[in-house]
User: Fold this.
Amino acid sequence: MTSLRPFHATDVFKFNPTNLDPLTETYDLNFYFSYIARWPHLFNVAEGRDGTIDAYIMGKLESSPPYQQFSPHYLPYHAHITALTVSPFARRLGLARTLSSSLERSGDSYDAWFVDLFVRKSNRIAQRLYEGMGYSVYRRVVDYYSDDLADPGKSGEDAYDMRKPLRRDGKREHVRERGEEFEVAPEDVW
Amino acid sequence: MADQMLKDRQDVPIWNAIDAGNFKQALKLVDKRLAKKRTDYFEALKIYIRSRSPLLAEKQAVLLHLDELAEKKKAIAELETVELYDEAFGEVLPEPQESWDKIIGELRWLCVKSQPKNEDLSLKCFQACLRKGDLEHAKQISEKYPEKQRKLWGSLAFAQIGKLATATKQATLTRSRQDPKKLPIRSLQTPQELLLLHRVTEALGKPEQRLEFLNDPTLGPESAVAKGEWQLWRFKLNLLENAAKWQELYETTKSLLKRARTKDQSGQLSESGLSDWIVWEAFIRSAVELRNHEPKDAVIAEVEAHLDPACEIDKSWKRNASLALVKITFVSSSPFQAQPHDRIPVIIKYLQKYGNASTAYNDLRPFVEQLNVEDRKQLLELILKDAIFEETKEDKDIKTTNRITQLINTYKLRYLLTSSLPEYQIRAGAAYKSSRNGSNGQYSTSSLRQLAQDAAKSYLAAVHGGRAAWNLLPTDTHPADDLCLLSAMCLFKLALASTEDSEPLSGAKASYVLQATALLEYALTHSQPNFQMSLLLIRLYYYLGCGSMAMHAYKRLGLKQIQLDTLSYTLFDRISTFHPHPFSHFVSDSSPYRTPIESLQKQQKMYRNSRDQISKNIWLSYKHGSYNSIFEIKEVLDTLSRTLSAAMSVVESRKISGLIPSKTESGASDGGFDILPPNLEASESPFSDTNDYATFPNFECTQGPRFEELCRFVPASSDYRTRINLAAEKLAQLLQPIPEDKGGKAASHSALQSFLASPPEKFPKSSGDLLTQPEELTRQSYDAMALIIQDVCDRERWADQKFSEQLESHNKELCESLEEQRSLVENIKAPVPALACTLHALYTGYEAGKTASKFSVYLSSKAKDIPGSQSQSQGEANQKIAAAAQRLLQTVAEKCVAIKKGLDEGGLIDKVLDSVLQGPDGTDADVSVLCELRDSLDESHLELWAGDVVESWRDSVVGLSWLKV
Assistant:
């Protein structure tokens, strides 16, 4: 069964089925609560039987600060997927697609240009999922992650910044082809 | 100021002097009045005058006085007096929030508490606390409000927000289309404000009013203000169901489901989220309640429309429709109908469609539980014949994720049908309940053994050849993992059904536990990220007394931040009586997990940091208009301040520090108590249980206890045990001599006075299994010690006619419980290797003996003061207590020596391997499930693991060297 609901602050006591997965980071309460404080409507949970948290998505709507408006890396008003995680027991059910679609709809209703997200270069499964949903790589952020889960010997891993244009970007001005070849440094990313 | 504070005409000259700034004169006049009559009011007035003085020394003296006042916790009845102190505080410290809460907020709260019926007083103090942002005291005061006033506040809040709701409605009436940007300032304009409206209305218990708001097009879930806030739909469906408005619920849900599969003008399924399972459930419920065919047909028609291949709705929503078909079939047919019904076919159909997802079992479990005996047999037969997934029958290769998941789902169903469900029914039956003797004999061991063996066999076949055959990423769990978990869970239950043997490694119980452990450790070599295996391993290693191995499994979980609250209990509950010393095996010197105390301190640090993070975000929510979030975040703050886990971290770290001197500073001046509200053990509110039990694997039937509960070797954390532990710590603290540089005798006397002022509650014997046997005996000892101190040190009791009799009885109880504890330790017949129950009995016995020893020393000086012959007889009783404590400590020490000696002898690795592969004593092959599978197991891995288990036993007993007489 699939049932969506807003993430409640007390869900931090219940999110171990998703957060014990090595690909999901657990941050301090400030991180989660700042999203509940600022974008409560973009932080949603897919609930399983008995109220278990099967998956959740944390999103935000924003643009780069005004002082960056002449920077080539300036981001116009857009939706961003900060975290999207599905518990190992609830995979292959389409929950990631369902949750990200809900964020895209919110992005559209708030007139955002696109939705973007970062994904590890090694995480081909996630990249395929997003590609299937209309996302494409916009740029590669070199050494964005401080560790490499696939190879603990390495010091860092690149991230792909993937984007999907929303209704407002009818001319597809905010996506590009062969984005994998477009390298940026982590400090260029806001 | 003078107008407000003037109590008596005689005080006029004092206030005139103050107003004139002649503080010297004012003080002189107050001292004169104080000499005649010492009252709280004049004391406060004096402090107020001194606070107005420009001299720094005077201000410091005022602060010191206020501090002492707060520490005394004396209730001042007159509000004027409290307000003088408040003014004085404001003069010396104009801004500091925390100190205001601690001193003035507390004084105001005590004042209200002393006069619970004084409405005016409580209102004034409530406002003052609110004004200063002292929410904690404001909340405490508001709880003391008379009912009438509480209602008044609620009504005011409701009236206020109701007015805003009306403004939104009216503004819309005057315009053809609702545009949130054009709404008046004083109106509801955002989804969060609508959620606040519901929160306020819900608090006042007005469901009809809420439904009215939700039905209103300008305030309901489809209003422009709501911006599609899904929670409002959830509220609406829930309220309609509670109000039994079946026709309306039916029409609403029917229309929502239709909209979910209908494309918008741009060809998108923009409302597909309306196919949420709660909509389906409400649709089915209303259809069934309406009791005619048309609604049921409508459900089936809607299911078919969703499942139509032409319908492009996401697969998660299609799955809801398929499950809805199962549900409507079950709720609309009775298993006792004469004609054949379609319950089994509908289950099979669902399995065939979704059996390749691991959630299929969870989805179907509640329905399978409703099958009658015949249907269960039929389903089991189909499972055993492998006749469910017909289309893949030819495909014998289980090494595809789809096929292995299907196989796992059928194994789980088999477990449910042959083991979990029948066990539950036996346990729930009247015959079992009336004959219950605490044993776990309700398990059908033959079916468990068969299942354990079959599941392990399938698992080993699936992982044969390693991960390479499965194309997995390093961070992926292995698709076959649940087979191994199921097998281990069956072995776990077999262990629980077996009795303890006198030789730990010769018994069936340890053999089953070792088999489950070996299997899970092997599985982890194929699936490192599987946290459910790690959780089970922590528990198994705990039972075995392998602290370092348990820590190794715990470390693998990689817990951080809030997880330290929810999952620390898995290892650290009772760590002081399991492995209080540093881990020297399997954990490196530089690891942050090196010592238990460091882990506990890390947990406490999280609580301290959280307070600030939470309050910061309460204000951030306010700033962004997220009013509903404020309440949610506040709830976390309240919960975290009193979790069982937080109290556990304090108790365990204090116990460890008392036993093993720490090289590092705790970082907390009061030994960690700062993370808990004061006197929590005596508080009326219960502790919050945030321990996460749900993340453990669980394939049990939904009506009975979860597997985590079934597989407890020791009673879980409880409110009862936590209170006992905190009270025991207070007593231990009292008995501890205070060095001269920390206050010496004076501090000790003051500690005794405060102990006598609020003596620990006497905890009755628990009705359930909340304590282990050693803990229960220790509770009795501590209870007796607390009562003796009260009798001996509280002079008021000496005059009581029953004084001698009572004191004698408490002395007797104490000696008896110490003796019983000694006998318990003495009766540990074969303590090698030391399992957790042995370690627990030794550490607990030592703690009780050591405390009783300190108690007798402490009491020897106090008992002299008792008048008459009672002083001498208490002196004699004291000697008996000291002797009983000594005997207990001696017995513990002797047992420790025997354990250490036993572990030095060789052959333990072979014994472990024999227990795993040949069953106990190598004779009972029937007990060894892994015996037949030994060819599939990696024996070299098994040998290495057995070596680690033995090393871990050796590491565990290192801590016993601290248990000296």
